[in-house]
Design a protein that fits this description.
The structure is a single chain. By secondary structure, this protein is mainly beta. It is built from one helix and 17 strands. It has one helix spanning 18-24; strands at residues 31-36, 41-42, 48-53, 57-61, 65-68, 76-82, 89-98, 107-109, 116-122, 127-131, 135-139, 146-151, 156-159, 163-173, 176-192, 205-216, 222-227. The strands form two sheets. Strands 3-6-7-10-11-14-15-16 form an eight-stranded antiparallel beta barrel. Strands 2-1-17 form a three-stranded antiparallel beta sheet. The protein starts with 17 loop residues before the first helix and ends with a strand.
């Protein structure tokens, strides 16, 4: 089992949830079917699942903020394993952080604790729940998630969000608009400072905003649809 770390994450994106809302309104409970490589392959229990951020992730603090850049060539996020599929809520266990969430590239910083920061965001085996109602939630199962922030000025700060609440969207994918890619967005998700280990001057709170297209670990997009 992984060691307990300290985690934090933020990302800003606008993703439509109307597809899910319209499909579920006034209907009996639907199930979320997850596939990859179009609709060719079912996502099965034990298969690796990757939350693959390719845009900036923002951590708002008081004062200031720090922003970690990401790109298709240098993404950041979490890797886990599918637990369930074809349920009203499907579960994925998040096992590892990678890229910028693993003390990656310097994150531009305006907190006054140095010109940049390094970030480590450890999921600590948290469970990602994807709901057919368009909701996404990450919640610690055995341990809290851990956000560790090391500033170039020397300060070290740790935060332990108990859960992150966001949205699931199914985005039409070209050139096959009948297929809908799965994406997860979190906005302004707050975590408090772990004071016992904090350096002087650490911001007391951090708010995480981020968006994640979803893939298999081998790089195939994960698609979703609602089924009876």
């Amino acid at each position: 089992m992984k060691r307990i770390g300290t985690v934090g994450v933020a990302l800003l994106a606008t993703l439509a949830v109307g597809v899910i809302a319209s499909a579920t309104a006034g209907a009996s409970p639907q199930k979320l079917n997850l596939t990859w490589n179009g609709e060719t392959n079912e996502l099965v229990a034990g298969q690796e699942f990757k939350m693959w951020n390719i845009s900036n992730v923002t951590f708002a603090t008081d004062p200031g903020s720090f922003t970690c850049e990401s790109s298709e060539a240098d993404p950041q996020g979490w890797i886990g394993k599918d637990q369930t599929n074809d349920e009203t809520t499907d579960d994925i266990e998040l096992e590892f952080e990678y890229g910028g969430f693993e003390y990656g590239d310097h994150c531009a910083n305006t907190t006054g604790l140095g010109s940049f920061a390094w970030v480590r965001f450890d999921p600590n085996l948290a469970i990602l729940k994807l709901s057919a109602k368009g909701k996404a939630e990450i919640k610690g199962e055995f341990f809290p998630m851990v956000l560790e922030v090391l500033y170039s000025g020397g300060a070290g700060c740790a935060y332990e969000p108990s859960r992150l609440k966001g949205t699931l969207s199914l985005e039409p994918w070209r050139p096959e608009p009948r297929w809908s890619k799965v994406a997860v967005t979190f906005a302004n998700q707050k975590a408090k400072l772990e004071k016992l280990t904090a350096s002087p001057g650490c911001p007391r709170k951090v708010a995480f905003t981020a968006a994640f297209p979803v893939q298999t670990s081998s790089g195939y997009n994960v698609f979703g649809k609602l089924v009876p």
